[in-house]
Amino acid sequence: MKASATLQVERRVTGSRNELRKIRESGKVPGVIYGKGLGAPVSISLDGKQLAAMLRSHPHSVIEVDVPGEGKHPIMMAELQRDPISHQIMHIDFQRIDMNEKITTSARIDIVGSSIGEREGGMLQLILHELDIECYPKDIPDVIDVDVSSLELGEHISIGDLKLPEGIKATQDAETVVVAILAPQKERTEEELDHIHDEELQNAKHRDAAVAVEKD
User: Fold this and answer.
1) Where are the domains of the chain?
2) Large ribosomal subunit protein bL25 L25 domain: which residues (predicted)?
């Protein structure tokens, strides 16, 4: 993934909570860019809709932006703050990166194919939605495809089983399960269901009797 200019940022003066509120009310998001290669952290604001679109499609992408007063720099999202109730983006931190140094980031996992186990009635369960990786910024993949075509009932794929693109190294435990095919639950007969119902009634009667004794 090469750096691409997808966000327009404006320099802002670090101000009060009231000024930050005005920025948000105008549809923009306050933020900061920091890191090696910048003279000092740069306070910025950017369009909220454009930022939201980037986060939906490529939240871990490398972005080349023209930082006012600092020139063009490759950056990546470092931290995102949302309102706990409205989930509105309140603030974003970007870190300036060196394209010639390896970084740690994450890549979305995408399931490819239809498994044997699913066709036999099993259920596919995606356990790991993103994979932590180490690579050069230019090599960050948009997604990591996981082919489940050969998986049968009860089988799974771990991080160590993944065929990663060249230059990509997983940083999590190789034994971590990424996706599994769960066996279908056995359907109970009417006799088994009646038995379970009778046991539940008996348990309820015992609970009521115990409560009555305590009240006495």
Assistant:
1) 9-101, 104-182, 190-216
2) 7-94
Q: How far apart are CA 86 and CA 65, in angstroms?
A: 28
Task: Name the phi and psi angles at 63, rounded to 5.
Answer: -120, 130
pLDDT tens, residue by residue, 8-66: 888 887 767 888 888 998 999 999 999 888 878 889 999 999 888 888 888 888 888 88
CA angle, 22 then 26 then 29, to 5°: 80
The hierarchical CATH code for the domain 104-182 is 2.170.120.20
Alpha-carbon separation of residue 115 from 104, 108, 146, 171 (angstroms): 31, 20, 11, 27
Fold classification of 9-101 is: Ribosomal Protein L25; Chain P (2.40.240)
Quote the CA–CA distance of 73 and 67 in Å, as a whole number: 7
On the 0-12 / 13-18 / 19+ scale of CB atoms within 10 A, 204 is exposed
CA–chain centroid gap for 143, Å, is: 12
pTM: 0.71
Residue type at 195 in one-letter notation: H
